[in-house]
Fold each of these.
Amino acid sequence: MILPKLYPITDVRLSKLSHAEQVTRLREGGARFIQLREKNLSPREFCDAAEAALDVARERGVRLIINDRADIALALGADGVHLGQDDLDPSAARRLLGERFIIGYSTHSVAQAVEAARLPLDYIAIGPIFDTRTKENPAAVVGLDGLRRVKEAVEARGIPLVAIGGITQDTARAALDAGADSVAIISALLDAPELIKQRTREFITMCKG
Ligand code: TZP
Ligand code: MG
């Protein structure tokens, strides 16, 4: 699977916008692959919000990944699910979803990434690369050196690597140069809602260079 270099993730509290509105603005800026991340709504509420966002995504040619919830991804026919270390086991998610769905998986160390390389995944995320205030109780910072080590460890498997955590316009290039195939970003895209489109464009331009 080819991942776009920019992988935005939604955050309703930070942006003060619905998931659908965030997808709209991110798409206007050029994003084509977006994760819906929701840590505050009930599963039922998240499913409703995701359905509305998926309508926007389908209309505009965006692939949508659902954070945490394979059941919601399956029920809505989203493009995939992103699982953490405590979510449904990726092999179980693959049995549930089949080959058509994208499955991504969060890792926080070289050891976890090596373990992940054996699983039926479409991409592996590693982070936090830098300090982040967006995630509650983040694991220890991995750093660019850690990212390089993870790349070396999983390279032979040929699986795309997503860097996440504290990445900004100043550091996205370094993360890509250290081996990330894509950078996943929340606050540097969303903390000023009126700038989402512009910042998305800027990130995409920078990631090309
Ligand atoms: N997983 C590791 S760090 C992180 C997640 C979800 C938060 C990323 O947000 P930001 O604002 O880009 O640091
Ligand atoms: Mg999770």
Note: The chain has a mean pLDDT of 97.
Amino acid sequence: MSARQATTIEGGKARKPVTVASIRNAKGAEPLVCLTAYTTPVAQALDEACDLLLVGDSLGMVVYGLNSTIPVTLDMMIAHGAAVVRGAKHALVVVDLPFGSYQESPAQAFASAARILAETGCGAVKLEGGAVMAETINFLTERGVPVLSHIGLQPQSVNALGGYAARGKAAAEAEAIVADARAVAEAGAFAVVVEGVVAPLAARITSTIRVPTIGIGASAECDGQILVTDDMMGVTFGHVPKFVRRYADVGAAMRAAAEAYAEDVRARRFPAEEHLYGAKPKIAAG
Ligand code: KIV
């Protein structure tokens, strides 16, 4: 039995792994719980609470300290995707197609997605782009690649869009985003991430399309929510977007632990007796 086939037992009930079909069927039901993960231990910690774990290209900024997601490579996504799959038994793992690995043509997108699916064992890929990506989404889904779409604020287009400001304030832009949502849903996306749009627009998109919307900086009207885990855990330092609620201060806990360790080492209180390997007692001769 593979890790993905294994079920977990909770309160006597077997919890089955979440599938693409169960995400698609969650439209209008209990909201989908989604977070990002980039490593095995974090995936293990989040797995039971989540329906979907996204190996987002946000790892470029969160893990590697890059300024944007643009320099993230397919090899980086595959390494982190495989690590997260090893830690997830319940949640559906989705891996981002990074910038430059799918925009050129549907065939390029298929080659990149096929590598991700084969080399990580994840259940689906995510790609950014609305109507302009409909042909690619159709090409992938017709060939057995489940696609999570990502519309509204698209971080990979930050150079073209000129920043991370919320989308859909102007009526024309709102109409274009609704058209994007329709196009990607009709092309076969099993769900749509809606990022950084004004709240009424997120509600309108959710009531317009037949597949679930997963909001980030959108609204509670979406069929699910996603956040960057490090943001909501308080691990990222510097600017935190308005739409993030901090559920923990793991960064402060790490700093405090490092300071306590430093004090112990400097005072020779660590390592203590219980941390030492003793020599084997000698057997007395004769
Ligand atoms: O890369 C990422 O983490 C994402 C989420 C913010 C949706 O795309």
Note: The radius of gyration is 22 Å.
